[in-house]
Write a structure and sequence with these properties.
By secondary structure, the chain is of the alpha/beta class. It has 2 helices and 8 strands. Strands 1-4-3-2 form a 4-stranded mixed beta sheet, with helices on one face. Strands 5-8-7-6 form a 4-stranded mixed beta sheet, with helices on one face. It is globular and about 45 Å long. The chain starts with a strand and ends with a strand.
Length: 126
């Protein structure tokens, strides 16, 4: 349904380091960047496509929590995201587990990013 999403970050470079480090197991990588005032805009891509997750400088104070879920190729990748988050002392909202209330095989970890957003790695298994 979505082509891409943009998230405003209080510190683009710090948020970039968070996303690249935490979600490395999903193949998330920097695909493009360009200047934006005193900061930059960065487009992140997965292993199979163009940039779909964009970080840009915040124009004001964030007042609402955003939820973004990144697709994982398997449960091991979800677990690797969790390990990377714990190693980086990222707030873990919910450790990896199956969430049958969403659907059987929904396996996910939920984390808090640097701007307070709820970010997830999810695998849709059988």
């Amino acid at each position: 349904m979505f082509d891409h999403i943009g998230v405003q970050a209080g510190d683009v470079e710090a948020s970039l380091a968070f996303y690249l480090g935490t979600f490395a197991a999903l193949g998330l990588h920097e695909a493009v960047r360009f200047p934006a005032g005193d900061s930059v805009v960065v487009g992140l891509a997965g292993p199979d496509g163009p940039p779909a997750f964009w970080l840009s400088p915040a124009t004001g104070v964030e007042t609402r929590e955003l939820h973004v879920a990144f697709r994982a190729p398997d449960r091991a990748a979800v677990d690797a995201v969790h390990r990377a988050a714990v190693d980086a002392e990222v707030e873990v909202l919910h450790a990896p587990r199956e969430w049958p209330e969403y659907h059987p095989g929904y396996y996910a970890v939920f984390l808090r990013d640097l701007d307070g957003h709820n970010v997830e790695a999810v695998h849709h298994g059988p």
